[in-house]
Amino acid sequence: MQIAEIVERRSVSPRRLSEPGPTPAQLNAIIEAACAAPDHRRLRPWRFVLIRTEAREAFADLFEAAARETHGKLNSDHVKRAREKATNGACLIAVIAEIRDNIRDVPPHEQWVSVGAAVQNILLAAKSFGFGSMLVSGDKVSTRALTGGLGLAPEEHLLGFVAIGTISKQPGTAERPGAKEKLSYWPKEEIRGVK
Ligand SMILES: Cc1cc2nc3c(=O)[nH]c(=O)nc-3n(C[C@H](O)[C@H](O)[C@H](O)COP(=O)(O)O)c2cc1C
């Protein structure tokens, strides 16, 4: 992958990620890319669950239950929006992190970095196949409806979902910081020819 492709990657709303999504072989390759994330002590603190296409409506029941758990009584618009979040995007993958607080030399923040790197590899691998993608979460991720419905163990967290699909409407260009804002040098004064 060229650096320009990394820089130009944009998140695309799951509403704009239409069929076709990745083939099973492409999905396997995307997950292999995720598993190439930096990972101190090989903890593999991530796993992924593909929500099967034929089960997306059933999965929407969990999103609706999650919204009820968080917000109580829902009106019909709220129900519709909650359910759509489970059915938008050709392909929907739950990202699950197993973060342990008793690992010597690998505090939780290092494990979260590994999870984040795995997600970024998914986004870039999806782009390399020509797909758009986006990581989304929301307050639903910590509900019993979803953590129980996905079968998480007590030490696991649902980070969110990556949606992948064919871009039906291109996003605009992103305003992002660059080296000017985010790179500095130590010491600050010119040293050994490096400014
Ligand atoms: C852990 C995590 C959860 C996120 N959840 C949401 C979300 O629920 N909704 C949303 O609009 N963006 C969410 N985002 C941000 C988008 O994934 C995306 O990074 C952001 O819109 C910037 O777009 P870009 O990737 O094109 O720079 C989340 C990002 C992270 C890292």
From TrEMBL:
Keywords: Flavoprotein, FMN, NAD, NADP, Oxidoreductase. It comes from the Bacteria. It comes from Marimonas arenosa. FMN binds at residues 9-11, 40, 135-137. Belongs to the nitroreductase family. Its cofactor is FMN. Its EC number is 1.-.-.-. The lineage of its organism: Bacteria, Pseudomonadati, Pseudomonadota, Alphaproteobacteria, Rhodobacterales. Residues 6-165 form the Nitroreductase domain. Binds 1 FMN per subunit. Pfam families: Nitroreductase. One of its GO terms (molecular function) is oxidoreductase activity. It is an enzyme of class 1 (oxidoreductase). This is Putative NAD(P)H nitroreductase. Gene3D superfamilies: NADH Oxidase (3.40.109.10). InterPro entries: NAD(P)H_nitroreductase (IPR052530), Nitroreductase (IPR029479), Nitroreductase-like (IPR000415), YdjA-like (IPR026021).
